[in-house]
Amino acid sequence: MIHFEVKSKKLNLGKRKGQTVFYAKRKHYDRVSLKEVENEIVYSTSLTHADVRAAISALSRFVLRALEEGRAVDLGELGSLRVTVPVRMVDKEEDVTLHSLRHPVVRFAPKADMRRSAQRVSIGVHNPKAKDAKPKTPQPGKPGADSGQPGGGGVGI
Description:
Elements: E1 2-10, E2 20-26, H1 34-44, H2 49-68, E3 73-74, E4 79-84, E5 105-110, H3 112-119, E6 123-126
Parallel strand pairs: 1-6
Antiparallel strand pairs: 1-2, 3-4, 4-5
């Protein structure tokens, strides 16, 4: 379950300058540790902890090297990693140089199963002042579809 809480902010720019606005902010990020990943692989395969650790380390080195070479890396059912270089738009053709390129960034493109997993996550907003504060569960594949807010803003906890 991903939990959100209500936060407020006073706007400093634009036509709403000085107005206080409210938004949902994620409370915390739960993480699965590398040790947990390692343990799960050990318990679901015939590999040892040392085997798994060595495989993860080798995968990491290989992915880093491939990305440094500008290659995309397909990680099977998880998705793929690639380096992208955002560009600046310039007025003249002769201005397209290294200076018109931004810093390279790594992008992850998830496969369908991973995207579906993201759509099935339970979400909730703790807001006792909400008009409809009763708990709601998002429909599968449509987080917050019944809340009237993007991202499931009406799900109660």
